[in-house]
Structure formats: structure tokens, C-alpha cells
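Protocol step 4 of 6: structure prediction from sequence.
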Amino acid sequence: MTYEHIVAGTFVSRPNRFIAHVETGNRTVVCHVKNTGRCRELLIPGAAVILEFHPDAAVSGRKTEYDLIGVYKNDLFINMDSQAPNKAAWEWLTSLDGSMDSCGCAEKAGSPFSPLGPYVPCDIRREVTHGDSRFDLAFSLRDRDTKAVSPAFMEVKGVTLEENGVAMFPDAPTERGIKHLKGLIRAHEEGYEAYVLFVIQMKGIRGFTPNDMTHPAFGDALRQAREAGVHVLAYDCLVTPDTMIVDSPVKVILD
């Protein structure tokens, strides 16, 4: 995924979870923070940040001309846009370097789905409701050998919390996240393949684990989901100030 009109700045303050004050050029601007999480370890006064400027803000009715989308944690650049993981995951499944077969299935050898066995994704859709859950992605999995097709759901979680090279989720308690995991378990019991994908919005990560210190109930739910047959995946991203691309698998640590 790509951003336009990127501007560098210096973080000043965050009066509430929706806005931040950032110095850019010779002035302080008000920005929309595209992440309602705490992000206390990231948004520190003096931190270098990246903004997306919206020149049509006044015409389109936006309250601010800027979105805060990225931050430097020392030398590590982190995309903190909570809307980016869903879009990046969708691009990851659909584009796959543009290699598709006649039915729209990804066939390229070494595609991101190769760790899942002999399957390729087809008919990828976003924001699909099933029961009392709305999943980020719905698609079909086609067996490369038998051509059999099975339905699947995927929930996508963006990860911005890092400590000593290990990524963690969540950075704040999330009952909504637990609800999504329970929905995936029910879908799997009904015959769907079910996945939760943790999109780690940075590079240089050696592992992913649930943040049991902050929300042990989410960690318990994630382990229960894995035991129930839900596939737990974590991938890092190639991140620049104006792009974020899902890249490589990261070891999931649940034990």
C-alpha cells in the first residue's frame, strides 16, 4: 500500500487518542492519529514522525489536514496506521506479484500462502459478515493438486508493539479481539478454514507473542483458537515512510 504527500515532523503531544500536535517546518500542526491504541512507547515528545498531508482537506470536510501514520523508535521505523494492515493483507493475497491464473487464484511458486500447504486463495473479499462476526477477509482455498475448493475466513490484526525484537499484541485490552477469535473458532467448527494474521508493521522482528502482561485473556483465547484448529500467522512488513508491504513470516511463540 502507498501513501501520498508525505511530510516529516517531530511529535509534541497527544491531547487525546484521536489527535496529536506535531512540529513540521516552522509551525505546529494538528494531526489525526490513525491508531486509537495507547502507543505510549512510540509517541514520546521529540520522536521523529511521518505525516500524510491531505491538500483537499477543506474541500472534503476533513477536520485536519494531516494524518500521523509512522514513527521512529530509535532506528526502527514503525507504521502505526491501524487501517494499513487490512489493506496490506488484502494486497498480499490478491496481488502476489501479479501472478494469477484464469480463475483469479494466486499460482506463483513461493507465494505467501506456500506455508499453508498446497493451497492458493481465490475470490478474495473484504469485510464479510458470518453469524455475529464480521471478518476482515473471506476467500476460497483451492488445492493445487486436487483442485478442491474450501471456504475460509481471515481476521487481520496490526501489531506496533515491540520489545527486544519481539512483537506483541495487543497494546491495550481488547474484548473485540477475543470476540473475533471466538468467531473464528465457530467458523472452523462449521467447516471453514480459519486464520488470524498478525501484520507486524515493521521489519527486523525475530518473533511474535501475545501480550499476556497487558491482556492475559486475549493470550488464552489465542491459544484456545490454535488448539481448536485456527491457523495463527504472523508476518513482518517492508515499511518506508510512504509504503507498507507484507513480507516475511515471523515465528509465533504461544508456549
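Step 5 (inspection) to follow. The first strand starts at residue 6 and ends at 16.
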